[in-house]
Amino acid sequence: IGNTVLHILVLQPNKMFACHMYSLILSYDRNKEGPGSLELIPNNEGLTPFKLSGVEGNTVMFQYLMQKRKQNLWSFGPLTTVLYDITEIDSWAEDQSFLELIVSTKKREARQILDLTPVKELVSLKWNMYGRPYFCFLALFYILYMVCFTMCCVYRPLKPRTDNKTSSRDNTVYVQKMLQESYVAYEDELRLVGELITVIGAIVILVLEIPDILRVGAAKYFGQTILGGPFHIIVITYACMILVTMVMRLTSTTGEVVPMSFALVLGWCNVMYFARGFQMLGPFTIMIQKMIFGDLMRFCWLMAVVILGFASAFYIIFQTENPENLGQFYNYPMSLFTTFELFLTIIDGPANYDVDLPFMYSVVYFAFAIIATLLMLNLLIAMMGDTHWRVAHEQDELWRAQVVATTVMLERKLPRCLWPRSGICGREYGLGDRWYLRIEDRVDPNKHKMMRYTEAFKALDRDNYDKGSEKLETNRDTLYKKELSALSLSRNTSRASSHRGWEILRRNT
């Protein structure tokens, strides 16, 4: 019952009342230390009160709990050394990491905890010492791997075509070799080494990704932008395309260019995932994901309807015409592709002035240009501009969350010998088996005094301040207000605010 009450207090909107009640309940706890403590008992979701405060974004409760768990090591003047307990925060020995819970939650308030002590210092320590070097090495290794795969595709086994053409539009010159002909020369053996590296890399990608999908869940794993959801879909699809290409090569099945083309596009697009390791490029990947899965997905439905309607009209108009004079609409698939190019203004409107074009072509093309180019395309640009404005206000916050997610991912994937545990064991200071992070804090004794001075010059809510002070001020203060109002009539707004601030400062002194 006591543990349930603690979890309820974390969710209370009155945070100060919840902190006092939390402390009161813990004062009656018989097992304040050890596994029987109320603070260490998880709920049905496996969350302790401390982790629940992070998931819900309750920064007041989180700071309150951290203040209870810290140990002052020594103090000398304004310099203080503090040991913060990071037992539940550190993801090194946690199955359900506190950091991973924060970045995977949908509440924006939870990401503000990443700027609080000691979470900020812990993430910075992990990222600078181990995360950034390993991530940069992984990015370089992946780029070399993609270069190897690309070269294998460029020099894939082809041979000249031997059969005759069956159509005047047939432009095929080379065809794919059979399996027995593909690995004969020395150059084929070099390509075979690259293909084996490519296939082994695809299998490793699947082996590393599938356990995380089963542990986190497909909806959260693929749906969270911060966790790299779209990039996980891309890299898994890429690995599957590699395996499909391998099967088609072993069975001598024609058409391997289809999965190979998809794999090349997806593999090189996944390089953008490694931009999250750099503060200059990381926020842009977030904007791209927001635009693709927000504005562009909705816009594509409207675009598909417009293209389908006008492509059908163009095909019907040129169905009776000679395709040699204007071949952009000679069949229905080509009409769809040409209309798509016209929609994005990639090409100009097809025309042949040596022959007479149908009258309805001019009418339909005029309507298409007004609706597609002038209306819908500019609507998409406006939507993307609005998304960019919204994401720009929180891009730094999202980038820090990306760094945390990347750090936790690397910590789980790499062996323990390559990533030692961060912090200091409490046994060195007689604090048990808990792990602590040592942080030096400089306390400025004049900080509160300077805050009073700065508050005196703030011009916000001055009217409310005057209304509340009228009931408590003496006659001298009343005379002061009349004098101040007279001064404000004769001076501009900035000088009145400055004079008002000096008078408030003089009176407070």
Low-pLDDT runs: 468-495
Helix content range: 55-70%
- Give a count of the beta strands, DSSP E runs of length 2 or more: 6
The profile of the biggest β sheet is:
4 strands, antiparallel
SSE ordering: HHHHEEHHHEEHHHHHHHHHEEHHHH
Query: What's the average pLDDT?
Result: 75
Query: For the largest beta sheet, what order do the strands appear in spatially?
Result: 1-2-6-5
| Rg over CA atoms | 33 Å
What's the total helix number?
20
Structural description of this entry:
The protein has 20 helices and 6 strands. A 4-stranded antiparallel β-sheet has the order 1-2-6-5, with helices on one face. A two-stranded antiparallel sheet has the order 3-4. 62% of the residues lie in helices and 6% in strands. It folds into 3 domains: 5-115 and 423-446, no CATH class; 125-277, no CATH class; 290-410, Helix Hairpins, CATH 1.10.287. Residues 468-495 have low confidence and may be disordered. The two termini are 51 Å apart. With 509 residues, it is mainly alpha-helical. InterPro entries: Ankyrin_rpt-contain_sf, Ion_trans_dom, TRPV, TRPV5, TRPV5/TRPV6. Keywords: ANK repeat, Membrane, Metal-binding, Phosphoprotein, Repeat, Transmembrane, Transmembrane helix. Its main location: membrane. Pfam families: Ion_trans (PF00520). The chain crosses the membrane at residues 134-158, 192-210, 231-251, 257-275, 296-318, 359-381.
